[in-house]
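Students often ask what a holo structure prediction actually looks like on paper. The answer is less mysterious than it sounds. You provide the chain, you provide the ligand, and the output is a string of discrete structure tokens encoding the 3D arrangement of the protein together with ribose-5-phosphate.
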Amino acid sequence: MKIVPGPASKQLGEKIAELLNLETVPLAFKRHPDGESYVRLEGDVENEEIAIVQTTSPPQDTRLMQLALIADAAKRHGAKKITAVVPYLAYARQDRVFLKGEAVSVEAVARMLRAAGVDSLITVNVHKAKVLAKFPFPAKTVSAIPLLAKYFKKKGFEGAFSLAPDKGAVWLAEEAKQVLGGEYGYLEKHRDRYTGQVSMEKKGLNVHRKTVIIFDDIISTGGTIIAAAKVLKEQGADKVYAACVHPLLIENAEKRILEAGVEEVVGTDSVPSSASKVSLAPLLSRELAKGA
Ligand code: R5P
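The corresponding structure tokens follow.
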């Protein structure tokens, strides 16, 4: 197997190759003056299995297009199997028709990748794992929550309260609790489908004078974490921390979260950012070694 570190995940791709002791295929890429993406493989892929490591955080459409072009180039030049390693899978939250007339975006993305030559896919904490069953190739999601929890454990947070910001994400808190010990729970979140505004229901949680770590898959605008932190402080939590797999951190989200009284925001290198303190390289290299 050879690794192609895509432009959006160059460092992560190189770390994975290093851990697996695999060769990387260098890639030339640029934007044409009119905005179109261009890629060229600068190494041989003939008869090789290749893994393209490319996250699809903003600018999502460009990064998806680069991934599709790399897959096309690899297939065209004789790669025998192409695995897309896409730590953050864009469009995964639009996994059904919520309002009449909408697209199921994540399924459209999967079909596009298949058409470009992708044979299998590995992603990390995709919003809902069941969407992968509808992909036209084998697709798998792995969880980085234990890695995030270990980060906090190393800092001495054993016994902290692990919290999910909504009921659907409670298994994230449960996974974290396996590493940290302590209690776990969830809040009741509501998001207005038209405005995107988040509100959090007050809920009797045993957080008084406790350190609480909120675990979520994504922090985008920070609205969810800010609303959760407010409810936790009102219930007497001592210190509140935020951890997520995909730190999209749109529009100064990190700064606004810290200003809302959260002590630290911790994310992975799924989306390279100032909060990316935990690397996915060990997790993803293990998955690739199993044979995707
Ligand atoms: C949504 O259900 C996700 O799990 C995250 O909670 C959400 O994407 C976070 O978005 P934001 O930071 O904009 O509230």
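The longest helix spans residues 60-76.
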